[in-house]
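Section 5.1 Outputs to date
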Amino acid sequence: MTTQQPALALVLDPTGSGRHAEHRALRDRGPATQVDVLGVRAWSVSDPALLKRLLTSPDVSKDARAHWPAFGEVVGTWPLALWVAVENMFTAYGSDHRKLRRLVAPAFSARRVEAMRPAVEAMVTGLVDRLAALPAGEPVDLRQELAYPLPIAVIGHLMGVPEDRRTGFRALVDGVFDTTLDQAEAQANTARLYEVLDRLVADKRAAPGDDMTSLLIAARDDEGDGARMSSQELRDTLLLMISAGYETTVNVVDQAVYTLLTRPDQLALVRAGTVTWADVVEETLRHEPAVKHLPLRYAVADIPLPDGRTIARGEAILASYAAANRHPDWHEDADTFDAARPVKEHLAFGHGVHFCLGAPLARMEVALALEGLFGRFPGIRLADPAEEPPPVPSLISNGHQRLPVLLHAG
């Protein structure tokens, strides 16, 4: 793996510090620019029009094995190897992607998501009740006490993960998004994660339930027409659904709460009925998307850029969603959070055939969490309003390490 990059490559900060300045630097370099992602060279695309075009182009693939010549060299040493080496619909291309997505899609149909609403409402109520029972006047970390436990409970319910194992899953998924881990630490985290997934598969195969894991195992074990999953695709599909359905939603809850507590005018709009909680969720997804950069895609053919340069066949592409969402050519006053903004279009859930299947469920979770929290605690405020909490150590994940609040006015 090449670690020395030409000066023209912008080195992305693995700690996630100074993200907005980094995103401005990307946009200033044009629609696409070469970056260093933990030693791997890629084209960061931050222009929304170009990014949407590439995300729907057959000339762009997510299959590293088939379309990234550097894969064999990189996969054994890169800390983010799991992001390009998994075998599921996240990295699939063409007919392979269609097959895997078809097997997963029923779990996220509009009917099934809406059927989960009472369960999600009950989870929110339980978490808010637990917050209300805490000693008054003491700071509460809402990332730990609300933003974390709600999505892991929802995805655990959907996937059939026993309650006593959800905390273990959470810690391991956190490691997948932590881009400060070195290669050995990342590999160790991956190995532990697969051990937990294999145990879940074994248990569900022995005693199937009414959950998505059992349904996917049945698809894997079906000796049908060749459309079934391989064993590795099953493991990696479970990994994708648990990690994508958990970590990203944590960040949206976190960012929405932080924004409303630092922008009381926006909270007032909700309370006056001028905007809805759904409006807040959409503007949060635009303004502070859960994922800043998503590795990786690859050029299947040479791709000409608007400025005359070319992404050569086989070169890696990084979708820089956060930078694109705030592009001044897309949204007026793009750096300002405005829940009343008439057009809140964003790329937080991706675009094209890889658009996130879990988007409706995530939107519902966040809206219910905000409604429950601010309805129960009208006097809620930040414990330390003078300073933003530190970011999670990641160039991928966009959230805070903690979110301390005081629940009652005082």
